[in-house]
Protein 1
Amino acid sequence: MQVQLSSGTVTYRERGVGPTLALLHAFPFSSEMWEPQLAGLEDVARVVAIDMRGFGGTPVAGPYTLEDLARDVAEVMDALGHERFVLGGLSMGGYVALAFERLFGHRLQGLVLADTKAAADTPAAREHRYHVAAEVEAEGVASLTATMPNTLLAPVASSDVRERVRAWIERANPRAVALAQRAMAERPDSTERLPRLTLPTLVVVGEADALTPPEEAERMAALLPDTRLVRIPHAGHLSNVENPAAFNAAVRAFLGAIAR
Ligand code: MLT
């Protein structure tokens, strides 16, 4: 499905009935990574999974900042008639969700921060992103396809999950990858904002997440006033894909608590 925004077309997937849960994907994936949640939460939420610029069916447009992506999300949700909703993001999606909260916090009923962090990049991490952006623009996504699945997934990930994730990375548009890397490099630090987030939050992390490890999630949870932290067993960075049953159970319980 698609909507027309001032910045161009945005595609999304939508399924289910109930209060709205908008989901923002990780880098360099698309709304497809949320299929286990679209299918597994459809009885408790209207799940809207949005393709950010250059990913899934949404055309490449940029350069942009993560705030621009948050504005796109606001426009999509306006177009679909969702004034208030729960917003969830995994990794890069979490960075965009935090940007959304900064800009449009009044629209949120709750926030799900999965395998993500509030901290900005270190100078070295920023430099690495610019290097990856240039490399991918020059040579395509082969270097990511070769290395990312091992970094993202827990050692116990099945060959089916590994193959799916590898195929998703292979499909990523190099220009979109480069633009996303540059936008993430320039994101501000959100740590100081966390103690002011009085809305209900759910922090989720794969127990074997090597990129945004459980200690990072604990740091965020310690600063959030109204939060619950759920560790997902047998999962790395893509906890919603690696262990959908545990991930969905955590979100289901969170939505239930908000509704009470
Ligand atoms: C992601 O999974 O979205 C990325 O690993 C985020 C990042 O590169 O910081």
Protein 2
Amino acid sequence: MYDVIIIGAGPGGYIAAERAGARKKSVLLIEKEHLGGTCLNVGCIPTKTLLNSAKLYRHALEGSSFGVNAEGASFSLAQAMKWKGEVIEKLRGGIEFQMKKFKVEVVTGEAEFVDANTVRLKADPSKTYQGANIIIATGSSPAIPPIPGAKDPAVRDSTGMLSIDFIPKHLIVIGGGVIGMEFASLFATLGSKVSVVEMMDEIIPFMDRQLAPQLRRAIKGIEYYLGAKVEKLEGASVFFSKDGKQEKLEGDCVLMAVGRRPNLEGLGLEKIGIDMSRKGINVDERMRTNLPNVYAIGDITGKSLLAHSASRMAEVAVDAICGGTDRMRYEAVPWVVYTNPEASGCGITEDDAKKRGLNYKTASLPLRANGRFLAENGVTAPGVCKVLVDADTDVILGVHLIGGANSEMIYGVAAFIEDEMRAKDVRQLVFPHPSVSEIIRDTLWELA
Ligand code: NAI
């Protein structure tokens, strides 16, 4: 009998294994494919690796105003893909090392429940394992909508895009969410014509409504069809209706990115009577399901489909197993869209504040007002910092950024929000100069 069995080795599962191992629990980690899950193998890491290659290429093409002439710069998709593969291999090796370090037993195979304390491997049901506690961390998969032609080989999901061996002449992206926009930005940077077809009237559903159009304008080389309902696909041709008119786009590659669904099937969850809906397994703030020894973390809960949320949920679940009182809080989870330029945010948006009836104040500054940003990006580079502060208490409610590599500084905002810091408190902190992060402090000074 293991202390903890974990099903799924993504950033939820492997972090749970590490943390439980560190607390001297006997741990079994079962994974049907590769260590690292979607994030490492077909998600966060490979997309960011390719986006960085594309960004370097763009810098080479556009460096002359900064004094760098790289005549004849070209992009090799094959080499970028090779480097992506090497990065994945290296990081998988890192997880393997961590599993050994924390004495985690790793089994390759697809697990299913026999009862609430027992799992077995589907391919070899004689292999059964018992756990005092079981953590379900099986993640999510791309959703395929019931649109005629959606399963045509010319239509790829994000996984398919990551093994593409050509740069599309015209890429049509269905869905202007995070996945859609990151790939749209990648291929637009590489010179593809890119069209984004989005059902809603704006991209990135959770983003500040004032900033989303600014992000659209900031990413170069993409045309948008907003409020567009895709009706059918024929190969790489997309038929949609917009403002009551029928329209057609002809491309040579289509990316379907209309959301992800939790991987609930095939686990025998009905058999053990777990409480769940189509959105995911229901959990409380300590990641407990309705079964006393079964926990669920990450995308499978449908709560926050982000790798960093999954890892934090893993820590909360392990703490609960160890008898602790840690709890998952979602208010201060930062998000990032790794387009070129990036967008990120933490806390609530202005619309959220209105809905909650809060008395708030906001301020915005262009990133060009920041010395480091201007020096490194030029006078026409787009970027903005918007802050939202409670007008009664001075507590920071949200910070939203577009421009540069803001993914590296949004964690600071998470600390402000988690700690319920006031604008006054942050104005009294010293930020390094010159650094782009100063824009947050300067924008808060606009409210002083
Ligand atoms: P999403 O939910 O972010 O966006 C899907 C978009 O597709 C929405 O804007 C929706 O209105 C639109 N849509 C839905 N049906 C449509 C249709 N029939 N025609 C046109 N548009 C349609 O989902 P996405 O981008 O697939 O990402 C899945 C999850 O993965 C997200 O929850 C996201 O947070 C996570 N993710 C996070 C990343 C990050 O943190 N940087 C990177 C990639 C994914």
